[in-house]
Amino acid sequence: MKEQLLNFEKTEFGLILTSIFKIKKMCNEIKKILSILFLNFIMISGLSAANFIVAPDGSGDFTSVQSAIDACPDGSRSFIFIKNGTYYGQLSIGSKSVPTSKMISFIGENKDSVILTYDVSLSTVSTFEQATTVQIYAKNFYAENITFQNSAGNTGQALALYTAGDMSIFKNCTLKGYQDTYRSKKGTRGYFYNCWIEGAVDFIYAGGTLFFDDCTIYCTRSGGYVTAPEDAYATIPKASTATGIFIRLGFLFRNCTIKGPESVPANSFYLGRPWGDYAGSIYLNCKLSYQVNSAGWATMGSSTYLTSCFAEYNSMDLNGNPIDISKRISWSYQLQKSDADNLLTTAAVYSRSYTSTFDPATSLIQTGEPQNLFLNNSTLSWNNVEGASGYVIYNNGKILGYSTTNSFTISKPASTISVRAVNTTGVLSEASSVLSAIKTVNESKVQVKVSGNKIEFSEPVAFNLYAVNGKSIAFSKDLVSQTKTKGITNGIYLIQLFDSSNQSKQFKIVVF
Q1: What is the mean pLDDT of residues 330-359?
Q2: Which CATH class is domain 186-363?
Q3: Which class is 448-511 in CATH?
Q4: Model pTM above 0.85
Q5: How many CB atoms are located within 10 Å of the residue 315 CB?
Q6: Quick one: average pLDDT of 244-263?
C-alpha cells in the first residue's frame, strides 16, 4: 500500500493534488498569522475598547473589579459597569513603578451600594500605598456612582483613594475614611462634582491641583482637619492678583458644604493646616457649619504657615448668611471678588503650569436620554443618541447589560425597563423607561376606542400594547390613528401612548 501511494504521488495527477494540499496548508498558516497580526493591530491602535460588567453573584463578566481592570486594553477608553455589592481588597490601575496607558471609567449601579473597601492602615504595613484601597496610576480616569472606603478607623493613615495620574474626574461618588482618606500626587489635576468626602484628620491631603464643586465635606471628629496640602505645583503670582498675595493652587472648594455629624460640637474642627512651605487651600462661596473653628486654620510645624495660602471668599453659614470672619487667624486671607471670579475658574486654574488641556466641564456634559423605547416581545429598541458611545440597560433599576447599538434582547423583563446613554467619558444620561407590566393607570387626553377588530385613537399616536404579564403584543413607532386587533384575544391589556411631543401615558383597555 505504501509503495502504491508513493507511485501515485509521482503521477501528474498525484503531483497536482499534493501541490493543492500544500497550498491549502500554507493558506491556513497565513490566515493564522494574519489573524494574530490583526488582533495585535487592534490592541495597538486602541480599537478594542472593553465594556465589562462586574457582579459579585456571577451575573456579569467578572466577579472582581481588579479582574476587569486587568482585562482592559492599553491606549483606549474602557467602561467597567459595577453592580451593587461590597468589593473587598486593594485595587490598582497601573502601579507606582509602571504607570499604564489604560483609560478606565468605573460606573456604579448605585453609589451607596457599590462599595470598594479595604481595612488596612499604615500601622501594620510599610508604605501608604499598602494601606490604600484604590490606587490610580493612569490618566483620564473617571468614576460615577462609586463609594471608595477604608474602614480601618482611628488606627493611623488609611487611604480610601490615591490618584497618581493626571486629569481624573469623580461624579456622584463617596469617599470614606478617618485619617488621610484621599491623597493626590503633586503635579496632577483632579475634579470632583457632587461628591461626599468624609474623614477626621487631614482627610484631603498631599499635592495635586484639585477642584471640588458642589461637594459635601464631612468632618467626623472634634479637633479634626479637613485638608493638609503640601507644596503647590502651580501658583498665581502676587502681582497678578487683586488681593495682593501669592495664590497657591492646591485644593479649591467651590459651592461646597462643610459640616459634621451632630455629635461634633461647635467651633471644633479646622478647614486645613499646611503640610509644606507653599501649601494652599481655598474655599469659594462655601457654606460652613457652626462646627468650623472660628480661626479657620491651624498650624503644622513651626513655620510652614508663613508662606502658605489659606484663603476664602464669600463664606456663609448653612442658611446662606455671611459668617463672622473677625476671628480668622492672621495669616489667612479673604479674597477679592475679581480674583475669585477671574483667576479661580477651572479653566484658569487647570491651565497654569500645565501643557495639556483639562476641561472636566465638557467631559461631564450628558447626552440626551434615549427616546422612543419600545419593547416588542424580548427585543428592546430606542432611537440612537447623538454623542453616545453606548447604552446601559436596567431591569427595575438593576444593571442588566450594555449595548453599543440601539437594541437589546431581554429574556425576562420586569415591570420597568430603563436605558441610559453613556458619553465618551462614561457619564450617564438621564434614564428613559418603558413599562413591561401594568403598574400604574394614568389619565390621557387621547381617547381610545376598541371595536370589532381594531383599536382607534382620537388623534395620531405611537403606541405599545402589552399583555398583563408585561409581554409586548403590538406596537407602532409611527403616529397612527388606528391599529387592527386581529389575533389578539379578548382580555385586559395595557396600552402606552406617545403623542407628537413624545409625552407618554399608559392605562388599561379591554379587548372583547
Answers
A1: 96
A2: mainly beta
A3: mainly beta
A4: no
A5: 21
A6: 97
